[in-house]
Design a protein that fits this description.
2 copies of one chain form a homodimer.
Chain A: E1 3-7, H1 12-23, E2 27-34, H2 41-52, E3 57-62, H3 96-111, E4 115-117, H4 133-146, H5 148-151, E5 157-159, H6 167-176, H7 201-213
Parallel strand pairs in A: 1-2, 1-4, 2-3, 4-5
C-alpha cells in the first residue's frame, strides 16, 4: 500500500479525488487547511468526507490568510460575487493552491509518500490561474528540486485527476465510487450548517454539473430573502 | 519606490538580504514564519532586525510544522547534530522554503509587489535541497503560473542575492551596509536569550565566516557545561 496525501477542502471535487485515490489502492492522508475562509463549514464537511471515504488520517492545518486578505473568501469587506463575470473572480485567493500544496509536500515527505492528489479542474471552473495544467506541472517540477526525498531518489508525482473532466463527468465518477455529495460543501458563502446560497460561482458550477450529469442534486440550499 | 517582500528569519543571511534590498531602493515588507522552530528566539531577532534595517512592516505568520515533525528543528525528540556529517543534515525541515516562499508569494500579490527576496546560499550552507539555484529558478517559474498578478502581466522576480557568495563575502557585504550582526540569531539551538551553542552546523558556518572575513564575531555564545 502506497501512502498519498490528498488535499481535501470538503467540496465536491476534492471528495471525488479522495474516492479515486482510495479506489486506486493508496493509503490516503487527507489534509485540509483552515485559512480563515468565509465558508468555514467546508472544514466540517471535510471531516465527514474523510471518515466516510476511508482516509487513514485527516489533519487540519491552521494558517490565517485573512491578515493578507485580497479575496472575497478572506476579507469580509469584499462580497462574494453572485453573478458570472469576465476574468478571474474576486474569490481568487492569492497563492492559495501553492500554500496548500507546499503543506502537502511537507507532510508527504514526512510520511514517505511520493504522491499528492489535488482536485483542481480546468474545464468547469472559476478561471483561477493555480488550477491550470501548466501550473500543476511547474509545481511538480519545483517540488522535485525542493525535498530531501527527491534528492535521494524518491520523486513526487502530483496527481490532478479532474483536470480535464467536466463537472458532470466528475459527479458521475464520484457517484460510481459511492461519494455522498450531500456531505460536501462547495458554496463560497455556505452558512454554519453548510447550507448553500445557490447563486455564487461555485454553486452555479455545481448545480449545472448535477443537471448535466443527470444526477439529482443533493445540495442543501438555504432560503434567501 | 517598488515594494518587495523579504523573508526574514532573524539570522545572518536574511538580515543581509534585507539590507541589500533596502539599499537597492525597495520598500521592504519583512515576513517571518513562526513554524514552531526550536530556535524560537530567532523571531525576536527578526523583529529587531526589521526595525533597524528600515522595513516598512514586519509580519510573523504562524504555521505549526511540529505536527508534521521530521526535523531536528521541529521535533524535540531529534537532537540537533553538533558535528559535521555527510549528506543532508537532520536540521533539514521538509518543504520549509517552499512553504515560506508560498506565503511570501501571497503577501506579494496583495501588496502588488513583484519582487521577493530570500537569503538562501549554496556555498557555505548545510546542503539543504531548497537552497540550490535550480530550486530557486523552478519556484520562480511556478510562481509565474500561479498568480492573478502574473496572468495580468505583472510577473514576479525571486531574488536570491547570496546564492553564490561565501559566508565571508556575505558578512563583508552586510557590514558595509551597516548590519548589526550582534542582533541576529543563527544558532539552531539558540536559547531564549538568543545565545548560541557554538557547535551546531549553523554556528560553525557563521563562526568560520567571521574568521574568513576578518570581522570580529559579535555572536553571544552561551556557556556549555
Amino acid at each position: 500500500m502506497k501512502n498519498a496525501v490528498v488535499l481535501l477542502s470538503g467540496g465536491l471535487d476534492s471528495a471525488t479525488v479522495l474516492a479515486m485515490a482510495h479506489a486506486q489502492g493508496y493509503t490516503c492522508y487527507a489534509l485540509s487547511v483552515d485559512y480563515g475562509q468565509r465558508h468555514h463549514s467546508e472544514l466540517a464537511a471535510a471531516q465527514r468526507v474523510a471518515e466516510t471515504l476511508g482516509a487513514r488520517e485527516h489533519r487540519v492545518v491552521n494558517i490565517d490568510l485573512t491578515g493578507f486578505g485580497g479575496s472575497a473568501l478572506t476579507d469580509n469587506n469584499i462580497d462574494v460575487p453572485e453573478h458570472a463575470s469576465a476574468g478571474i473572480p474576486l474569490t481568487y485567493v492569492p497563492a492559495r493552491n501553492t500554500i496548500m500544496l507546499s503543506l502537502a509536500l511537507a507532510w508527504a515527505e514526512v510520511l514517505r509518500a511520493q504522491d499528492i492528489f489535488i482536485g483542481v479542474n480546468a474545464v468547469d471552473y472559476s478561471g483561477y490561474p493555480d488550477c491550470r495544467p501548466a501550473y500543476i506541472d511547474a509545481f511538480e517540477r519545483m517540488a522535485n528540486l525542493a525535498t530531501q526525498a527527491a534528492v535521494e531518489g524518491h520523486p513526487l508525482t502530483l496527481h490532478a485527476p479532474l483536470l480535464h473532466l467536466s463537472k458532470a463527468e466528475i459527479i458521475q465518477k464520484g457517484s460510481s465510487l459511492g461519494v455522498d455529495y450531500a456531505a460536501t460543501v462547495s458554496c463560497y458563502q455556505a452558512d454554519d450548517l453548510g447550507q448553500a446560497c445557490g447563486v455564487c460561482d461555485s454553486c452555479r458550477l455545481r448545480s449545472a454539473g448535477f443537471s448535466a450529469a443527470g444526477v439529482s442534486d443533493p445540495t442543501r440550499y438555504r432560503k434567501i430573502n
